[in-house]
Amino acid sequence: MNGYLLICCCCLALGSAVCAENGREDAPVPVEESRVPVEGSREMARLSGLVPALQAAESELAELRKLRKAAATDAERMEVEKELDAQRERVAQLRMNFRTLAAGVEEGKYLGEEEQEVSWQRNLEDIIAPVSSGVRELTSGPREMEALRSELAKWRERKGLSEAALARIDRLEGIADSEAVREELEATRKLWAGRVDEAESQIEVYSQQVEERERNTPTAWNMVSGAIAKFWRSKGMNLVMALGAAVVVYVVFRRGYRQLTRLSPFHRRKRNGLAARGTDLMAGALAVFFAVLSAVVVFYLRGDWLLLALSIIFVVGILWASKRAIPPYVEQIKMILNIGTVRQGERMVYEGIPWRVDRLNFYCDFSNPDLHGGTLRLPVRAVMPLHSREPDAKEPWFPTRCDDWVLVGDGTYGKVVQQTPEQVVVLQLGGSRKTYPTADFLTSQPENFSHGFRVSSVFGIDYGHQGISTTLVPEVLEERLEEELYKLAGREHVKSVRVEFASAGASSLDYEVLVDFDGVVAPRFRRMRRAIQRVCVDVCNERGWVIPFTQITVHEAAVAEAGGERVG
Q: Is 276 exposed, middle or buried (0-12, 13-18, 19+ CB in 10 A)?
């Protein structure tokens, strides 16, 4: 799971890095190229407003230096030194503000220094530096703008506080009743007046920077079009070349290996053996490895360090995910190697239907030659619980085929007009169709008549013909049945006709008529059964043989004792 998250992060980083590069393309460039000219008087007015504050700060710095020289004790000198250091920083800040406003370029950007840390983490940082830089710069513009506005708001607040303090000091000076208080108030007033000047200086600098960035911010359309153009000029072309190289390497490797398998003794001896399957699996893994390696080499030769870093992170993520993902798939790998419970070329039953195992891989292929659309593809994990066995050479893959006549277990008789992995459709005499789910059709034990069938019928005559019941009667019936059935079905389609004495029943002497037909007569199966009964009746009529019917005979029994009553 962590590996998949890492891969997702890589994809996000790629998008962010591309956007960041386009953002850098649209970012403010040196002032000579991108800054929109403004009125010289406005710029000069801003610079003129900073000069008095700078001059006042320098004058105060000079006064502090004089006080340091005139200090009588070390304690006074140390106190003046602290004020002197603070004043130096203030003068340096004001001068930097003046230079920034005059040049239009922040000195921090020009003088920025990179960290020179050397440690064991440096190598990893070098790899992910392009990605992290892209992620960081994705929001650099909005973050910098927000920081400038925050600083501007802070200095405006400070200016308001300083002006409020000056107003309060002016009010107190008006009611001061001693010279000492007025001197301290004057010193305090100078402090807060300097802070007002400092705040105004900072406000001018940050206002200019905010205005400059707002003017140079591209529109959404320009940003999107620029991003697409920049991506295609650099990253897009590199990606196309890398993908093309990966596809070419993969195809060439696979085709070369396919040619080698024709000469391999493992494949020629037993293509589904362990050695052959193991070699195939290893070849597939090597093809993927070299394809990925070719893409990485393209990034390296093109000098695209961002995509190179992303590809390395992607590979590391795949390896990290495989560390936990491979062990649960050991059984699946055994299945792919053709040493599991289901083996290639054997017969298995899936959801009640027999299938031939054609191919075992991450997706397994199965087929049933007797079904229309009889192909099936399953992931290897769905095949894990199944079992297969060696099929018999004469074993059918399905009990029927299209156009076969069948008698289904529920009594339905008709012709199979469609059989697929999902359903079997039986066309009955008269035109009605009955549909069965394929698995249910198999469990109903259908009887196929298209390869030949037997019609068995029972016929009885009266006990009055007992003398000829085992000699003449079977011969006459058999001879007449052959004659009539040959006319109805054709001599070549009637395989045999037999009439055998079956039993002496309760009220008749019963015969069993057995007629074997060719499968061509299957559409007339029920007609043949009716014809057998008709012929038997005709023979009895011609010969005067009585056909009995079920009857109840009431017998009279005399009462054993004299004087008893007769019961009937």
A: buried
